[in-house]
Amino acid sequence: MLMNEPDNRFEAALANDSGGRKIGPVILDMQNISLSFGGVRALTDISFNVKQHEIRAIIGPNGAGKSSMLNVINGVYRPQQGEIIYRGQHRKNMDCYAAAKSGIARTFQNIALFKGMTVLDNIMTGRNLKMKSNFLMQALYWGPARREEIEHRVKAEEIIDFLEIQAIRKTPVGRLPYGLQKRVELGRALAAEPEILLLDEPMAGMNVEEKQDMCRFILDVNDQFGTTIVLIEHDMGVVMDISDRVVVLDYGKKIGDGTPDEVRTNQDVINAYLGVAE
Ligand SMILES: Nc1ncnc2c1ncn2[C@@H]1O[C@H](COP(=O)(O)OP(=O)(O)OP(=O)(O)O)[C@@H](O)[C@H]1O
After folding, report:
1. 8-103+197-221+228-278 is classed in which CATH architecture?
2. Would you place residue 152 in the very low, low, confident or very high pLDDT band (cuts 50, 70, 90)?
3. Among the CATH numbers 3.40.50.720, 3.40.50.2300, 3.90.960.10, 3.40.50.300, which is that of 111-193?
4. pLDDT digits (tens, 9 = 90+) for 66-79
5. Quick check: 232 and 59 in contact, CB under 8 A?
6. Where is the ABC transporter domain (predicted)?
7. Ligand 1, atom 11: nearest CA belongs to which residue?
8. How far is the CA of 109 from the centre of ligand 1 (A)?
């Protein structure tokens, strides 16, 4: 789809958005990030920020550096240059464990669930970092560990209700259709009660109906839980409809940043999507 084509497929999902959202101050500031793999420059001097409670999209053609940027945000990749300021703390790079502990959760381009485990158990794995009892206490199922397990199960069940997947809570994930697996993956990320949720192509491979559902859940997560969302998505209709601001990458460089309307009319962005040479 071209950048300036209107798309009303997601009106139904948007109708659920209260419209009363308040965007807060910057909570994540990526400054002059550069990342190379040998001779491949995946990211070159990229700066952008994410404000509390906003839906921030990262878009760009294939190989633009979008997933690399998410991997820098949650500490999978360490940039050679730049600085990351999260909750006022300045860092050269994030660390995966610290990122997860400090409220950054993520879903992946290719579903990363335990296929033989049930929906409920997969969502419970998202609670791991919240668990206080140690392995021995859990194995013996001692009083405090038991109480804790019950609390975590209640939380997991709340997420299952929220995502409307009660009917499949005991089904092994591998038996579910793709769209539902994506929803379970969202559930597992939500189980960590993240402050920032990184979504890597949450609608990839979905049909229109599944996309509408996913769109509605993303908007509801943002609205009801106040979760800040950073999402990579190739479907321009979705991006332009649900994002507050969009950053555009091309060949590892930032070529646009602004509201959907600003980005839609940015000539560099239009050229990148139409494949026009510089
Ligand atoms: N682990 C890695 N090792 C070597 N090169 C990598 C690695 N990860 C990414 N790259 C390279 O960095 C560049 C950016 O890749 P990245 O996956 O971030 O792009 P993308 O915008 O997410 O693409 P897509 O939309 O196709 O997923 C590409 O040239 C890619 O080959």
Report:
1. 3-Layer(aba) Sandwich (3.40)
2. confident
3. 3.40.50.300
4. 999 999 999 999 99
5. yes
6. 28-276
7. 42
8. 12
